[in-house]
Amino acid sequence: MRLLYVFIGLLLAITTSAQTKVDSLLSLSEKARNVQKTTIYLELVNATVKDSSLSNRYNKKAFELAVANKQLPEQAMSVYYSARILYTARDFTEAIKKYQKALEMYRQLNDTSGMTKCYRYIGISNFNMSRSKEAIASYLEGIKLAKRDLDYTAELLGNIGLVHNEMDNVNEAISYFRKALSINQSIHDTASLAIDYDYLGATYSRMKMPDSSLINYHKALYLFKKVRQDDRYAVSLSNMAWILPNYPDSLNSAINYFNLAWKKFQELGWLHFEPNIQFGIANILGKQGKLDESISAYKKSIQLANKFKRELFLKKQLYQGLSEVYQKKGDYKHALEYRILSSQYNDSITEKQKFDQIANLEKQYETEKKQNEIIRLQAKQDLTDVQLQKNRQLKILGFVTAALLLIFVFYVLIRYYDKIKLNQLLEQKNKTIERSENELRVLNASKNKFFSIIAHDLKNPFHTVMGYSWLLSNDYDHFTEDERRKFASDIHHSTNNIFRLLQNLLEWSRSQTGRLTFSPRNIEFKKIIENSVSVLRSLAEQKNIEIKLEYDNDLILFADPLMIETVLRNLINNAIKFTPENGLIEVSAIQITDQISICVKDSGIGISEEDARNLFRIDSTVKRKGTNNEDGSGLGLILCKEFVGKHNGTIWVNSSPEKGSSFFFTIPAKISV
């Protein structure tokens, strides 16, 4: 049975032998006749399929030769290889289109085997794009064609089982795996039988049926060893080791199986499996009560996972297991630390899946967009052809009589003026579209900024609140009064951060939706600055930061008080955040002609020139931690720029690293009534 999926280690090709084959084929092509060269170039495509650029070059040559020599089967094979190159490059959408084109060519040639191969890979491509129904439909079409080819039929049945397994339809998956198993038994295909048993073992494990899982894994191990398939044998040893901890008296046996699997992985050169082995051993040591040894194994597994850049899901499981062992040990501080890390990795996995789906949708959108553009251009060409034909007819009629000539000229003039009007209208439409695209980009950036804040900045303080409250609710009596007081202080600090962020979010949301009323009037600067500083003074006192005010008591602004308070509050809050303890913040204001220039200056850590250029942009990703590791979303400065802009003012920053920052903005001065 030809295998649909292989493990990572099987993807490592022997470069030397592949290059030797390519050199040999190129040498052979120089002496071959023109008809024979087509087959040689197709062999070169197959030999270089992992190098898409080189493989495409050979395939183009093969197709040209096949067309020139009228070799229809070779033409179909060339199109099939085009699809295979795209599939290897993981461009599944384009690969499916090529496979469908090859399918039609094989259908015209009545080549059942070629058609079956196309259906098979259309199914695999759909499966890789999480399009389960389309994958199953393609596999079923392949089965209809492969009635006499039991080997192919068994493989396609197994593929359908894998799709159902991915969809959590475990009963259907088992049914298809058993159908494949029955066929492979009838044709005595030992290697494929072993794979079927392995799939059944994995499915029963997923169903929490360890007895059935062990039975099938034992059969798979025996057969893999019999056919000397060491790679599959090593993986099955590892699978067995993960099942045995379901039996308390088999924990030592499980460790032995992990060690045997690791020995095989080392022989195969698959060193990237070591984090999984250490993870399994750490899990068993924890069950045996050997907590310190378990912690050591977990930490080693984490180091190896980072070294080999393993997937996020494995790291999430490792941090979760480490948290549980620390909790058993009574070390709640480390238990909380690793629980938060596990939660963050879980969020990262969800975020990655979301962005993968978005990327896939965007790719499909671009493909459809290109197709629509081709259709539009074709329609335009058809319209042009019709117009040219019409003009020729008018010219012929013009030569018949002078009267018809005058009519024709008159008609052309009318059409010409219509064309001018249409061009003007088209130009206006293009400008409208361009404005809409710019607005869409801004809205898209605003949406991304909003979701970024919701997904990260608003969520991070909740991790602390949830973590500490979880510890207090589960193990309240285990903590000292000082520890409980610290937990309460941290929860209070996090909720304050959440409240301030929500304030900015609500004000920004009202601004974006046009629900924020702009009501400027003459107001005393003294009143505005005192209101702004009063709510932040306690925050500054926590870091022993002095806030110094310098302005004329008679200074009058013409501004919306709520908006200016928001601007000052955000700038002073940022100054506190990025100023170390015992620092100084100076707020000053001075009138220059009909404008008032306000400055918030701090003695903090400063800002690099590159970050300063991007501070006030909605599409900026500049985020920095404060001197006490305070979080920031970047929304406050965007809000400041928008509110200052409503007053026809400007805002800017002068700063350099380690030399503090000075934020300036201008507001209209008092307007005489």
Please characterize this protein's 3D structure.
It is a single chain. The protein has helices at 15-31, 34-47, 52-68, 72-88, 92-108, 112-128, 132-145, 150-166, 170-186, 190-206, 210-226, 230-243, 251-268, 274-287, 291-307, 312-329, 332-398, 402-457, 459-475, 481-512, 525-534, 537-542, 561-577, 609-614, 635-646, and strands spanning 521-524, 546-550, 556-559, 584-592, 595-602, 651-655, 661-668. A hairpin with a 2-residue loop joins strand 4 (584-592) and strand 5. The chain has a five-stranded mixed β-sheet with strand order 2-4-5-7-6. It has a two-stranded antiparallel sheet with strand order 1-3. It is flat. Helix 23 (561-577) packs antiparallel against helix 25 (635-646). It contains 25 helices and seven strands. With 673 residues, it is an alpha+beta fold.
Strand pairing plus helix content: what structural class?
alpha+beta
Counted beta strands: 7
Work out the strand percent.
5-15%
- The first-to-last residue Cα distance is 91 Å
> How many DSSP helices?
25
Oligomeric state, counting identical vs distinct chains: single chain
Q: Strand sequence of the main sheet, in spatial order?
A: 2-4-5-7-6
Report the C-alpha radius of gyration, rounded: 35 Å
Q: Give the low-confidence spans.
A: 1-17, 351-362
Work out the helicity level: over 70%
Estimate the mean pLDDT confidence.
Answer: 80
* Morphology: flat
Largest sheet: 5 strands, mixed
Provide tags for this entry:
673 residues; flat; two-stranded antiparallel ribbon; five-stranded mixed beta sheet; single chain; 25 helices; alpha+beta; disordered N terminus
